[in-house]
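Consortium newsletter contribution from the modelling node. Members have asked for a concrete example of what our holo predictions look like. Here is one, prepared for the succinic acid complex that several groups have been discussing at recent meetings.
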Amino acid sequence: MNRQTIVILGTGGTIAGRAASASDNIGYTAAEVGIEQLVAAIPGLADAGPLIAEQVAQLDSKDMSFAVWAKLAGRVNHFLAQPDVAGIVVVHGTDTLEETAYFLQAVCSPAKPVVLTCAMRPATALVPDGPQNMLDAVAVARHPGAKGVVAVCAGSVHTARDVQKVHPYQVDAFSSGDAGPLGYVEEGSLRLLRNWPEADANRAPDAKKIMAALDGATDWPHVEIVMSHAGARGAVVQALMQQGVRGLVVATTGNGTVHQALEAALLEAQAAGVSVVRATRCPNGRVLPKPGDLIPDSQGLSPVKARIDLMLRLLG
Ligand code: SIN
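And here is the predicted structure:
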């Protein structure tokens, strides 16, 4: 176990939530308890080595913004550059955790561990899940050889690329789909099932350029997600084009199929210079490309991650 410093960055979420009654697991306000207080309330968290806690933001992650992402990436890079820092734990809401994880992996490509963790029950719950998740996250951040952005929840470790919130209520709310988890945390020990995520070879060289662009950007490229479904229409695409949208991810049915009315509008948008990408709305698997496909696929990224990828490509 690595005894160097672990930095814990707070961003809010249910894990920092407060309810009027200890028996209420859903009627709470997220992002109320400060990160110092959360850390101080967990016996044994600092037993394995020093910790630094910093509040980067305090929000319900459904309201995550580009500005908070840029600030968070800046703090992650700042602390990762310190030789005495072994890794970082980011305390986050569950609702957009997978998006922040993917964003941080893309822009920071860390050679040290950056571990996102969360909770499904507020800090005031009779049996909160946050403290155990934070203990597990710190154990993963201290694990020798750990690297890349991962998420830890309910004893499972997921990569940024695969992790997805799959349940709105249960404590074990995340899955890595058919890729399976990276590992499990068992009584403070990590049982690793596959290799740590590597820096994305396509992304890593322009990570610096993207960080520089994020620094100065007040507005990121306008990229939206539209969904194909029974009775889908092209009007939504036309409306977005009038708003100057630069990229569109279509959450497709099955293996990349799109309702013909929506597809016609997307092809028109593509011909007009809008970047269009297909990502399946199925929770498992990926779009398998076929000769003659007119719209590129997301290379296995879910719609929300394909959107981030497209936004960064338009920014880079
Ligand atoms: C949030 O995402 O900030 C609220 C919901 C949660 O953390 O479970």
